[in-house]
Amino acid sequence: MARGCLQGVKYLMFAFNLLFWLGGCGVLGVGIWLAATQGNFATLSSSFPSLSAANLLIVTGTFVMAIGFVGCIGALKENKCLLLTFFVLLLLVLLLEATIAVLFFAYTDKIDRYAQEDLKKGLHLYGTPGNVGLTNAWSIIQTDFRCCGVSNYTDWFEVYNATRVPDSCCLEFSDSCGLHAPGTWWKAPCYETVKAWLQENLLAVGVFGLCTALVQILGLTFAMTMYCQVVKADTYCA
User: Fold this and answer.
1) pTM of the complete model
2) pLDDT in tens, 141-198
3) Do the Cβ atoms of 67 and 86 come closer than 8 Å?
4) Residues 58, 40: contact at Cβ < 8 Å?
5) How far is CA 158 from CA 5, 9, 52, 123, 178, in A?
6) For residues 208, 214, 217 and 221, what is the CA-based torsion angle, rounded to 10 degrees?
7) Which of 2, 46, 186, 225 could form an SS bridge with 122, CB 3.0 to 4.6 Å?
8) Going by C-beta distance under 8 Å and a sequence separation of 6 or more, which residues neighbour residue 159?
Protein backbone atom coordinates (compact mmCIF):
# COMPACT_ATOMS: atom_id res chain seq x y z
CA MET A 1 0.00 0.00 0.00
CA ALA A 2 2.80 2.39 0.93
CA ARG A 3 4.56 1.52 -2.32
CA GLY A 4 1.45 2.31 -4.36
CA CYS A 5 1.07 5.72 -2.69
CA LEU A 6 4.74 6.39 -3.29
CA GLN A 7 4.42 5.65 -7.00
CA GLY A 8 1.39 7.95 -7.32
CA VAL A 9 3.10 10.86 -5.55
CA LYS A 10 6.28 10.14 -7.52
CA TYR A 11 4.64 10.65 -10.91
CA LEU A 12 2.65 13.67 -9.72
CA MET A 13 5.81 15.33 -8.43
CA PHE A 14 7.73 14.46 -11.58
CA ALA A 15 5.00 16.00 -13.77
CA PHE A 16 4.90 19.11 -11.55
CA ASN A 17 8.65 19.60 -11.67
CA LEU A 18 8.78 18.93 -15.40
CA LEU A 19 6.34 21.80 -15.92
CA PHE A 20 8.36 23.86 -13.44
CA TRP A 21 11.55 23.14 -15.40
CA LEU A 22 9.89 23.94 -18.75
CA GLY A 23 8.65 27.24 -17.30
CA GLY A 24 12.24 28.05 -16.31
CA CYS A 25 13.36 27.22 -19.87
CA GLY A 26 10.77 29.65 -21.22
CA VAL A 27 11.84 32.47 -18.88
CA LEU A 28 15.52 31.83 -19.70
CA GLY A 29 14.74 31.85 -23.43
CA VAL A 30 12.96 35.20 -23.21
CA GLY A 31 15.89 36.61 -21.21
CA ILE A 32 18.44 35.44 -23.78
CA TRP A 33 16.28 36.82 -26.61
CA LEU A 34 16.05 40.21 -24.88
CA ALA A 35 19.80 40.26 -24.24
CA ALA A 36 20.54 39.39 -27.88
CA THR A 37 18.05 41.75 -29.52
CA GLN A 38 17.61 44.64 -27.09
CA GLY A 39 20.92 44.81 -25.27
CA ASN A 40 20.52 45.62 -21.56
CA PHE A 41 16.88 46.53 -22.05
CA ALA A 42 15.15 48.34 -19.17
CA THR A 43 18.37 49.18 -17.34
CA LEU A 44 17.18 52.37 -15.63
CA SER A 45 19.24 52.30 -12.45
CA SER A 46 22.63 54.01 -12.27
CA SER A 47 23.41 52.27 -8.96
CA PHE A 48 22.62 48.79 -10.30
CA PRO A 49 23.57 48.82 -14.01
CA SER A 50 23.29 45.02 -14.22
CA LEU A 51 19.67 45.12 -13.02
CA SER A 52 18.17 44.79 -16.49
CA ALA A 53 15.07 42.90 -17.59
CA ALA A 54 17.25 40.53 -19.63
CA ASN A 55 19.61 39.74 -16.75
CA LEU A 56 16.76 39.29 -14.26
CA LEU A 57 14.97 36.86 -16.59
CA ILE A 58 18.17 34.91 -17.29
CA VAL A 59 19.00 34.55 -13.58
CA THR A 60 15.40 33.69 -12.66
CA GLY A 61 15.05 31.18 -15.50
CA THR A 62 18.33 29.46 -14.63
CA PHE A 63 17.40 29.23 -10.95
CA VAL A 64 13.92 27.84 -11.69
CA MET A 65 15.42 25.28 -14.09
CA ALA A 66 17.93 24.18 -11.46
CA ILE A 67 15.23 23.74 -8.80
CA GLY A 68 12.97 21.90 -11.25
CA PHE A 69 15.83 19.61 -12.29
CA VAL A 70 16.61 18.72 -8.66
CA GLY A 71 12.92 17.98 -8.07
CA CYS A 72 12.62 15.80 -11.20
CA ILE A 73 15.70 13.73 -10.40
CA GLY A 74 14.72 13.47 -6.74
CA ALA A 75 11.27 12.15 -7.73
CA LEU A 76 12.56 9.68 -10.33
CA LYS A 77 15.34 8.32 -8.11
CA GLU A 78 13.21 8.53 -4.94
CA ASN A 79 16.25 10.16 -3.37
CA LYS A 80 15.62 11.57 0.10
CA CYS A 81 18.59 13.96 -0.07
CA LEU A 82 17.47 15.52 -3.38
CA LEU A 83 13.85 15.73 -2.24
CA LEU A 84 14.90 17.51 0.93
CA THR A 85 17.20 19.81 -1.05
CA PHE A 86 14.31 20.69 -3.38
CA PHE A 87 12.04 21.38 -0.40
CA VAL A 88 14.61 23.62 1.35
CA LEU A 89 15.42 25.61 -1.84
CA LEU A 90 11.75 26.19 -2.66
CA LEU A 91 10.99 27.14 0.95
CA LEU A 92 13.86 29.65 0.96
CA VAL A 93 12.54 31.22 -2.26
CA LEU A 94 9.03 31.49 -0.79
CA LEU A 95 10.35 33.07 2.43
CA LEU A 96 12.52 35.49 0.43
CA GLU A 97 9.54 36.58 -1.67
CA ALA A 98 7.42 37.08 1.45
CA THR A 99 10.20 39.11 3.13
CA ILE A 100 10.64 41.35 0.07
CA ALA A 101 6.87 41.94 -0.11
CA VAL A 102 6.66 42.88 3.60
CA LEU A 103 9.69 45.20 3.40
CA PHE A 104 8.33 46.83 0.23
CA PHE A 105 5.01 47.72 1.85
CA ALA A 106 6.68 48.74 5.13
CA TYR A 107 9.17 51.12 3.49
CA THR A 108 7.21 52.33 0.47
CA ASP A 109 7.95 56.02 1.09
CA LYS A 110 11.70 55.49 1.51
CA ILE A 111 11.79 53.26 -1.58
CA ASP A 112 9.92 55.96 -3.54
CA ARG A 113 12.45 58.64 -2.58
CA TYR A 114 15.47 56.44 -3.29
CA ALA A 115 14.06 55.24 -6.62
CA GLN A 116 13.41 58.79 -7.85
CA GLU A 117 16.90 59.97 -6.82
CA ASP A 118 18.51 56.97 -8.50
CA LEU A 119 16.48 57.41 -11.70
CA LYS A 120 17.47 61.09 -11.88
CA LYS A 121 21.14 60.10 -11.60
CA GLY A 122 20.55 57.59 -14.38
CA LEU A 123 19.28 60.35 -16.69
CA HIS A 124 22.86 61.63 -16.96
CA LEU A 125 23.84 58.34 -18.66
CA TYR A 126 21.19 58.80 -21.36
CA GLY A 127 22.72 58.68 -24.85
CA THR A 128 26.23 58.00 -23.57
CA PRO A 129 28.45 55.19 -24.94
CA GLY A 130 27.83 51.81 -23.34
CA ASN A 131 24.37 52.75 -22.08
CA VAL A 132 22.20 51.71 -25.02
CA GLY A 133 19.88 49.78 -22.71
CA LEU A 134 19.17 52.76 -20.47
CA THR A 135 18.69 55.03 -23.48
CA ASN A 136 16.26 52.63 -25.14
CA ALA A 137 14.34 52.08 -21.90
CA TRP A 138 13.79 55.81 -21.32
CA SER A 139 12.81 56.35 -24.94
CA ILE A 140 10.22 53.56 -24.78
CA ILE A 141 8.80 54.66 -21.42
CA GLN A 142 8.46 58.31 -22.41
CA THR A 143 6.87 57.43 -25.75
CA ASP A 144 4.48 54.75 -24.47
CA PHE A 145 3.43 56.50 -21.26
CA ARG A 146 3.40 60.00 -22.79
CA CYS A 147 5.56 61.43 -20.04
CA CYS A 148 8.86 63.27 -19.70
CA GLY A 149 11.55 63.06 -17.03
CA VAL A 150 11.32 61.52 -13.58
CA SER A 151 9.53 64.35 -11.72
CA ASN A 152 8.93 66.60 -14.76
CA TYR A 153 10.55 67.59 -18.04
CA THR A 154 12.95 70.03 -16.31
CA ASP A 155 14.93 66.99 -15.08
CA TRP A 156 16.43 66.86 -18.56
CA PHE A 157 17.62 70.49 -18.38
CA GLU A 158 20.26 69.46 -15.82
CA VAL A 159 21.37 66.60 -18.08
CA TYR A 160 21.83 68.74 -21.18
CA ASN A 161 22.68 71.99 -19.37
CA ALA A 162 20.17 73.57 -21.73
CA THR A 163 16.43 73.97 -22.26
CA ARG A 164 15.92 70.76 -24.19
CA VAL A 165 14.65 67.21 -23.77
CA PRO A 166 15.03 63.91 -25.67
CA ASP A 167 12.94 63.62 -28.82
CA SER A 168 10.91 60.86 -27.13
CA CYS A 169 9.34 63.58 -24.95
CA CYS A 170 7.68 65.29 -27.92
CA LEU A 171 3.92 65.32 -28.49
CA GLU A 172 4.65 64.76 -32.16
CA PHE A 173 7.95 63.01 -32.83
CA SER A 174 10.41 64.50 -35.30
CA ASP A 175 14.19 64.87 -35.45
CA SER A 176 15.46 67.43 -32.91
CA CYS A 177 11.91 68.17 -31.70
CA GLY A 178 13.33 68.16 -28.17
CA LEU A 179 14.87 71.57 -28.95
CA HIS A 180 11.46 73.15 -29.49
CA ALA A 181 9.34 75.01 -26.94
CA PRO A 182 8.03 73.24 -23.78
CA GLY A 183 4.52 73.43 -25.19
CA THR A 184 5.45 70.68 -27.65
CA TRP A 185 6.53 68.22 -24.93
CA TRP A 186 4.70 65.79 -22.64
CA LYS A 187 4.18 67.31 -19.19
CA ALA A 188 3.34 64.23 -17.11
CA PRO A 189 6.11 62.92 -14.77
CA CYS A 190 7.19 59.41 -15.76
CA TYR A 191 7.65 58.10 -12.22
CA GLU A 192 4.13 58.99 -11.08
CA THR A 193 2.61 57.93 -14.42
CA VAL A 194 4.19 54.47 -14.34
CA LYS A 195 3.39 54.14 -10.62
CA ALA A 196 -0.28 54.99 -11.31
CA TRP A 197 -0.34 52.41 -14.11
CA LEU A 198 1.04 49.76 -11.76
CA GLN A 199 -1.56 50.64 -9.12
CA GLU A 200 -4.33 50.32 -11.72
CA ASN A 201 -3.03 46.84 -12.52
CA LEU A 202 -2.43 45.93 -8.86
CA LEU A 203 -5.15 43.27 -8.96
CA ALA A 204 -3.43 41.48 -11.85
CA VAL A 205 -0.09 41.70 -10.02
CA GLY A 206 -1.71 40.37 -6.84
CA VAL A 207 -3.36 37.46 -8.67
CA PHE A 208 -0.04 36.59 -10.32
CA GLY A 209 1.77 36.72 -6.97
CA LEU A 210 -0.91 34.58 -5.31
CA CYS A 211 -0.79 31.98 -8.11
CA THR A 212 3.00 31.87 -7.87
CA ALA A 213 2.82 31.33 -4.10
CA LEU A 214 0.19 28.58 -4.50
CA VAL A 215 2.35 26.78 -7.08
CA GLN A 216 5.32 26.93 -4.71
CA ILE A 217 3.22 25.67 -1.78
CA LEU A 218 1.99 22.83 -4.00
CA GLY A 219 5.60 21.96 -4.84
CA LEU A 220 6.52 21.99 -1.12
CA THR A 221 3.56 19.70 -0.37
CA PHE A 222 4.54 17.23 -3.10
CA ALA A 223 8.17 17.19 -1.96
CA MET A 224 7.44 16.65 1.72
CA THR A 225 4.72 14.06 1.00
CA MET A 226 7.05 12.08 -1.23
CA TYR A 227 9.91 12.40 1.27
CA CYS A 228 7.68 10.94 3.99
CA GLN A 229 6.50 8.15 1.64
CA VAL A 230 10.10 7.24 0.78
CA VAL A 231 10.95 7.09 4.50
CA LYS A 232 7.92 4.88 5.13
CA ALA A 233 8.76 2.63 2.19
CA ASP A 234 12.36 2.24 3.40
CA THR A 235 11.13 1.43 6.90
CA TYR A 236 8.61 -1.06 5.56
CA CYS A 237 11.27 -2.79 3.39
CA ALA A 238 13.65 -2.92 6.31
Assistant:
1) 0.75
2) 999 999 999 999 999 999 998 889 999 999 988 888 988 888 899 999 999 999 999 8
3) yes
4) no
5) 68, 62, 25, 9, 14
6) -150
7) 46
8) 123, 124, 126
